[in-house]
Protein 1
Amino acid sequence: MRFVTPPPVRRLPLAGEQPATVVEPGAPGGAVATSGRRLQASPMAVERMTVDRMSIAYGAKVAVDEVSLPIRQGEVLALIGPSGCGKTTLLRSLNRLTELTKTASMKGRILLDGTDTATLEPTALRRRVTMVFQQPNPFPMSVFDNVAYVLREQASRRPRKRALQGAVQSALERAGLWEEVKGNLAHPALRLSGGQQQRLCIARALAADPEVLLLDEPCSALDPISTQVIEELIVQLREQVAVVIVTHNLQQAFRIADYVAFMYLGELVEYGPAEQVFGAPRADRTKEYVSGGFG
Amino acid sequence: MLGALVCAVLLFVLTIVVFVFKEAWPSFQHNGWAWFSSGGNVDRQIQEIFTAAADLRRPVYTFHAWPIIWGTFLITTGAVALSFVAALFVSVFIVEFAPEWIRTILEPVVRLLASVPSVIFGLVGVLVLVPFIGEHVISDDNRRSVSYIVSLSGYSLLAGVLILTLMIAPLMIAVFSDGLRSVPRGWLEGSLGLGINRWRTFWKIGVRTARPALVAGTVLATARALGEAVMLAMVTGGVAFAPNPADGVIFFVEPTRPLAATILQASEELTAPAMRHTIFAIAAVLLFSALMLSLTGWVVKQPMKKYGVRA
């Protein structure tokens, strides 16, 4: 299969149909109005993170080699590449989760709104850049407590349940789960379906109003219908937060990404608008990969 | 085949329980609920039961066990409470925070400690802790103030609680840390990925998820504490005295003797029927407490299962 012309995949309704909601005080070009898929970097998109010549190694093994990337709000950035190419490592380094691996060492800088993330407290950084994992991992609590967990932990005094209600509801609404769970917020989260669990994890990640949302193959453990629901959700979310998604599913990257970064053996081979990377890749390796040549 | 074996074991356990309660019945029958009340000196009552047994026509059964029940309660709760707190922190440290080399040393040490025979703990208590308490903790004023009731020598509630804590804490640590280790990595990472620090994450997700293991470990350790006889007979003073909280600080250094140690001390006098029934009555109380303990553990675990925490 070659992506000379875009493959016949279902395109999702893009966020242009909805009113844009980004209002970033102090950021240039406050409200962003979008229509359809952008083909180039929109001057209106707000750059939130910059990856600057980032290298990550586990012991002697280099997992990510001198990668530089911008991450913008209003766009979905997909990291693609064969297994073991470093895309998940790069994603985890964005909120310094790589530091949990003892052997990991890092070089280079990652800026969040102009501040080097290395100078931030890891906890402060991870509140602004939250992560959704490959396996849905809701906590063994009720649906409500799962979403309220972050809010409770961030508050200096334990807030009352009533005070959290609004924030929990809005997080669940943004994750598209509210209609399904509103009747019974005390339902054990682990008894939800896989897709609902993953959306709960997204709601949990959104509850603290992060600036960047990282998704590590969020649909790989889900069925096609749940995947579709989550993809639609991600496309809507890009207006509110900068979204970075790791996926090994090219169709998925094509459906939801505005920008695509193709990584191979730790190197960033190609970065560009989705249409260009899939339709007219510049590098040979990208061409081979997107046409199913390897990986 | 396996079913038959299981049935045989169950039958055996049932036989023991029935036998103990049957042997215990005359003692309960003669005393009624007063068996559990206070009144008189337990040691003297035991003596009378034994001596009167020579005259088989008029056996004495009068027995008021409150001091030794109270002693058992104090020693067990004291030791379980202390070791629970200690074991929780130690196991959290071992599982989550300790550097690799400390972990590789600590874990075998804990497992070794859990298997040390209680006589050795008793010996350490008698040789080290009891003299220390006798010489440095108890003042002469203390001794004088209660001299007309009980003599303070260092053999005490405090010694019993401390040594028992040392004995059961490794057991708790072993069970707790297994429980904490089996908390799915994804839940902890999920919390860390939301910017909750390591300590809070481990406390709110790790320990919370491992609650059934905490209950199981506590039940196991409490059962061992309840049944501990040799070590406690060695260090708590061997007097069936009920420590009185009204005595202030002296309360902790007063001697006592729990139920199991009483059985141990009276076991030579089993030949007299009345004595045998009395001792079996003590055994029945212990057995019943152990049963209740398991039941309580089970009941406490039930609400934890609601949200899918594994038991």
Note: Chain B touches chain A through 21 residues (CB under 8 Å).
Protein 2
Amino acid sequence: MQHRHLLPNELDLLVDDEAGFGMAPLRAHVESCAECADQLAAAQRVAGGLDRLTRFAPSPGFANRVMAQVQVIEPWHVALTETAKGLVPRNRTLRVVMATTAALLATGISGAAVWLSLRTDVALYLGSSIAERARVVVGDGATSLARTLLGEGASTLLGSGPGVLIAGTVGLLLSGAATAVALRSLATASRRTRE
Amino acid sequence: MAPRPDLTNVPDADVVALAQRGREDAFREIVRRYERPVFSLIYRMVRDSATSEDLAQDTFIKVLNHIDKYRPEFKLSSWLFKIANNVAIDHLRRKQLDTISVSGSPNAATESEIEATSFEIADGAESALDAMEARELGGSIEKAIAKLRPEYRACIMLRHVEDRSYEEIAATLDLPLGTVKTYIHRARIELRGYLEHLRE
């Protein structure tokens, strides 16, 4: 039994209804001390009043006002997954046909790749042919564009060694910028329609 | 498109995960769940309805626009309360406010709305006298809370209205556990002092 009045923090422990070692003597004291019992009752009354405080609601339309200022953006990887899911037909038969076609295509491409890897001479020949063709197409296109935009001098420069280097660098930068813009557009386009 | 499932009973963490995937209904669900707790906390801090709405709105905009930065190990409600408290404290630092409204919701326009939203009488009130006393105590407590320091108010609100543990309050308000205990202890003592006249 405790022979002194309870300290304020001890009253707090009782108000919080704490359990554990040391609480029993406090409770025993309150039962035998009218003054502390009165203090505790007052503290519990205030705590009870606080516990019964209600939550207030904001004015109607609060959620709409919030949502009007929130950017709901679907991440690009989610948009991509969702788009891919959208391409899968709902009909089971169609899904089977599509999967079979995809599997056949994949098998065919893999088979061709394996065959090409075994026939290095053919692979090298095809690779160099494609690269040469691409170089000619890109080079002609760039020269024609430069002539149109900058005149004959620029097209001559483009035909020279450093010119090709410059054109290649510019081309790389432009394609990088185009990729960034395309990704950004994809993210923006995926913004969800407001419900 | 298939209809969206109802999110009412979905745990907070899953709702946040859906919001992070760009689901607008998940954003709305977060606002629906926490508009009252956040608004109430801010209102009891700043004591002005219009300002509280603006600050609550700021809180949700900050949270929802940065939902991708949410860390699942932290409770969503704690994150919201932390930002709400910071927003309210920042506002109070900028401007001293002392307007108080103690009877009913700050948005109650009619008599019946005031009645419906005013301090809730304990379900177990035994008599009309008890009910009257509870109402009187509720109004007095609102007045008394307004006199507390903002830090005390936040702690007391989280402890008693939101039923948070001392540890959760400490994590939410970025305060040491001992400080939270001290604040709540002092706040209760102050409140007891302010409400002394009701004891008789």
Note: The CA atoms of residues 116 and 123 of chain A lie 5 Å apart.
Protein 3
Amino acid sequence: MFYREAGDFKTSYVADSQTFPIKFDRFRYYAVLLVAFAVVPFVINDYWVNAVFLPFLIYSIAAIGLNILVGYCGQVSLGTGGFMAVGAYACYKLMTGFPEVSIFVHVIISGGITAGVCVLFGLPSLRIKGFYLAVATLAAQFFLVWLFNRVGWFYNYSASGQINAPERTVLGVPITGAETAPWAAYLFCLVFTVVCALVARNLTRGMQGRQWMAIRDMDIAAEIIGVNPLKAKLSAFAVSGFFVGIAGALFFAVYLGAVEVGEVFGINKSFLVLFMVIIGGLGSIFGSFAGAAFLVLLPVLLKNVLVGGLGWPTDLAAHFEFIIVGGLIVIFLVAEPHGLAQLWRVAKEKLRLWPFPH
Amino acid sequence: MLDQTEGYTTEDGRKIGGVVMEMKNITLRFGGVVAIQDISFDVREGEIRAIIGPNGAGKSSMLNVISGFYNPQEGEVWYKGEKRPQMKPYQVAQQGIARTFQNIALFEGMSVLDNVMTGRIRQMKSGLFSQSFWKGKAEREEVENRAFVERIIDFLEIQHIRKTPVGRLPYGLKKRVELARALAAEPSILLLDEPMAGMNVEEKEDMSRFVLDVNDEFGTTIVLIEHDMGVVMDLSDRVVVMDYGKKIGDGTPDEVRSNQAVIDAYLGVAHD
């Protein structure tokens, strides 16, 4: 009833392999984009941007990046926090070193630098798999945080050891710093999120994605049919690092503005993004968004309901929040181990036939 | 002995070309175990070459040597008139040698179409950047290769399952998808490791027909390992017989069938 694909015939291979093959899906996607670009910037205020939209958009990029590595290529990584820190510090060094260059370029280059670092720490993946690789990337996490804490050059020898984003503008509108308008920061992140999602989708539906999935599903067979495992794995680390680096740069420059590395990019961050990927659904771009939304929005929602709606004290609500979110994660994973994306797929299957399932 | 360059004509009238691959005195050891001992044989263009032998004779090891999985301690592999240096499996695949496995080795999480498309990796060369935006070379390649893959899908009669995840398919269809993936590479040599293992008579007939059709339509050279003697004798042009890592027979099915060493290996021999 909601969902009709009857009469929606494909006459070319291009049409058949597009991202949203069903017309209804496609139009809904355009509608979401339209609202996100043309409506939301005019109605949001500071609270919505800082509590909801910015974290959601930025974590989505990070989750997409990690999903490419873990969900598509099957290489477990616990170093996401460290790699986000690389993006943040790269962006900081670029912003302070080349103030005349656009912040846009800085963020992209930060992604590139992170990609390089990620490849370096991905080298062990050629020899080890699974849990052992996870432990190896854990080393990256601790090493990178230690590095940014100890080596003064990275934080320009500031007394506090923090990095602070100076004011930078795009087309005359401030994007970073204290003067930033909520809509400007939102739009800046939205552009990155949309482009990253499109690129990730294109890569994963094409030959590169097939190579990654082949390595994930059966690496020996992949090698036998001609996939170079070295190239496939390292390219996954590079692309993943690129996205995570962009997320880190945005997280520091646009969202927080000031960062103390151990606090912001610690091991908690790695786990948080990994949870997003697992809850959202491994091997699904939509799942990355769903996972990010779940873990960013749910605490905000609970807080509003418990404190605002029921009038609980803030500290009690904060602790209950942990319990409820944790419980929901367990329930979700028991009910649907393949994550929210799979839940969504099943719902769509059902809706296609509703109300006549036979 | 057959001539090196000139081919021969089979009983059913197919022209077989010159030598495309030659194994020269291959010896493969695992520690103290000798899996293959001093074996030589050749494979000619367009023929169906079978390797048979009792369990543990070293047939699969031989196939693994051809596909670059094992490196033999002694001996040389000659491919298209050149001695092949030590290679990784993916390099061998890039040269145009495709294979299927005894235990199916498909990518379970991907659809049938994606599995078969992965087989086209040799033909798809577009870079990461072009693929990121799905424009230019990447899109063109995707469409061209999809068209080719659809031909293979048509040929093996798996159109109805092309969007199904492989993990959901029954065994017989999986075997067929694996053959499709190998064929998608347009291989010059196709290695089939027990393509009929675990199949019923009907499925075996289907598979035999596909093997013959592949050879006929694409002119693909096929090297196959099979236990079903009836199938081997019907399908193949020439047969290598192995036992305990040694070659004990080589020739047409008729020659092999009347070879005393082969009969002994299969039926056993009285020791006195």
Note: The mean pLDDT of chain B is 88.
